[in-house]
Write a structure and sequence with these properties.
The structure is a single chain. The longest helix is centred in the first third of the chain and has 17 residues, at 5-21. α1 packs across α2 and α1 (5-21) crosses α3. The protein has helices at residues 5-21, 29-36, 40-52, 70-75; strands at residues 56-58, 64-66. It is mainly alpha-helical and 76 residues long. It has a two-stranded antiparallel sheet.
C-alpha cells in the first residue's frame, strides 16, 4: 500500500512523539506503528526518513532507537 504525504507527515509526527515521551524506547517498526497509531507502511517510511536524518537508528536486534540515546546504544 502506498503512503500518502499526509499519512507520512502524521506518522513522522507521531513517531517523534513516541520517542519524546519515552527516549529509551526500543521497538520494531511494527510495534512502533501500533504504539503510534499509524499504518505499518507509513511507519516504515517515517523511520527510514528519521534514520537518514540521524534521529533514529536500527540496532542489531532490528529495533528502532533514538540515535542520541547513548545508554541504549551501549546496550545494543
Amino acid at each position: 500500500m502506498l503512503t500518502t504525504p499526509a499519512d507520512f507527515l502524521e506518522a513522522t509526527t507521531r513517531v517523534r512523539a513516541c520517542y519524546s515521551e519515552d527516549p529509551g524506547l526500543s521497538v520494531t517498526a511494527r510495534d512502533l506503528a501500533r504504539l503510534s497509531g499509524v499504518s505499518v507502511d507509513a511507519c516504515v517510511a517515517a523511520v527510514a526518513t528519521l534514520d537518514k536524518e540521524g534521529v533514529l537508528h536500527l540496532d542489531r536486534r532490528h529495533k528502532w532507537r533514538l540515535s542520541g540515546d547513548l545508554q541504549s546504544v551501549r546496550r545494543s
